[in-house]
Amino acid sequence: MYMxxxxxxxxxxxxxxxxxxxxxxxxxKFADCKPSLVACSDxxxxxxxxxxxIVSQITWPAENSKGxxxxxxxxxxxxxxxxxxxxxxxxxxxxxxxxxxxxxxVEVKLLQGTMAxxxxxxxxxxxxxxxxxxxxxxxxxxxxxxxKKEASIAVTEKVYCPYPRCSALMSKSEVLEYTNSSFVGGExxxxxxxxxxHFFFCINCRVPWHYNMTCYDYKRSKPHPRTEDKMLDxxxxxxxxxxxxxxxxxxxxxxxxxxxxxxCGYEFCYTCGAKWKNKKPTCSCPxxxxxxxxxxxxxR
Length: 300
Known about the structure:
Blueprint: H1 2-5, H2 14-27, H3 43-58, E1 59-63, E2 69-74, E3 81-83, E4 87-89, E5 96-98, H4 99-111, H5 138-152, E6 158-160, E7 169-171, H6 172-180, H7 186-189, E8 191-193, E9 200-202, E10 207-208, H8 215-221, H9 227-239, E11 242-243, E12 250-251, E13 259-261, E14 267-269, E15 276-277, E16 280-281, H10 290-293, E17 294-295, E18 298-299
Antiparallel strand pairs: 1-2, 2-3, 4-5, 6-7, 8-9, 9-10, 11-12, 13-14, 15-16, 17-18
Subcellular location: Plastid, Chloroplast membrane
Keywords: Chloroplast, Membrane, Plastid, Transit peptide, Transmembrane, Transmembrane helix
Family: Belongs to the RETICULATA family.
């Protein structure tokens, strides 16, 4: 890459060629610019120098009420002059905002159920969870970590610990690997060891591990569902929710037709639960109801 940027070698790859051209255009904007080859182990220092250079151009010294001089910077969101040590720099893009603005931005994104990205328009840099501890409550940092893990695991791969006091999220491959390190025969038996609370549970029944009993025998010995399962079933019936037979997640129809495509990809009829094949129903239920299509006098 260094040889290509300096012009010693012509790039062969189209994407790299475009990138080199962009670098060349940026170089022309400087009065003096000489590329330097930096070892991989020193890249972090290059980023730090670049960050310090940016900060030096947008800050200025100012006296506070006690007569002490401190560096100030204007937040481009609220336009308040803020102490530099209360300014947050987004990793990867170096866009800078005050702690209160970043706190509000991240909290709104969490309420929307998404991960926070840089507030700068068009910037796609992700806000690092590790650095959010500067302005966020530790509980919110933990929620962000959980959201990131949830997003990284496919719906069909997600496993939650059945113990109410734990409920840790794991992937099927993660919990199997962890179980195999301390338990023989876990893959065949269905026994899994939670990576957080370290208790065993059944991957098939999603209940605490039933020692010396098959899943069939366990279900026969426990014909009555648990209290929390009863509450969920009661709520589902009252709200007319449906359960996906593939991933067991609950689905609610807010509006639209009765053809449901679950997050796991399974397609079924919301009325009776019958599977859809090749985008066609296998049941004779109506595909839609006018009450679910019309809202506030307007068709959706």
